What we know:
Layout: H1 3-20, H2 39-42, E1 61-62, H3 65-76, E2 88-91, E3 99-104, E4 114-119, E5 132-134, H4 137-142, H5 157-164
Antiparallel strand pairs: 1-2, 2-3, 3-4, 4-5
Amino acid sequence: MSKISFTLAAAAVLLLAGCSSAVPVAAPVAETVDVAPEASETATPEAAPEATPEAEVAECIAVAQSTVNAINVGVAGIEPANNITSAVAVRAGERENVWFVAATINGEGMTDVVGLWATNDDITVDPYSGSMFSVNGEASAFSDWGTSDFSSSEAGADEALDCVS
Length: 165
């Protein structure tokens, strides 16, 4: 029983007591009692905490062999003994139909040299038929693919490099 119900019941008793006799009787003092509310009366469900959006994680995409072969043509153009054996890519953030492709360049005395290229061809299908551009210094130094306005600070570039390491 809630405080309001208890107070109303006490008032009704007083009214009935006052009507039943001609002699005034001192009314008992109503005592308030704290009663826990029933779950359905006042309990409100707690709001679930808002989900914190997680940072979007770039998807590392495996590169088709014909794209690897195309990069190798440019790498061999500088030093025929150098090559890459595999590559990964991430879609460029703001650029439509552009992928950043990262790969470790293998060669005599080379360790941890990762080139970054950009292409406009779907890197997941054979045959490769797009344009390839060197993006970072390593790609420029170790391949003869030309440069363009692509930058290693663009969305997707660092993510592609992270896929290699």
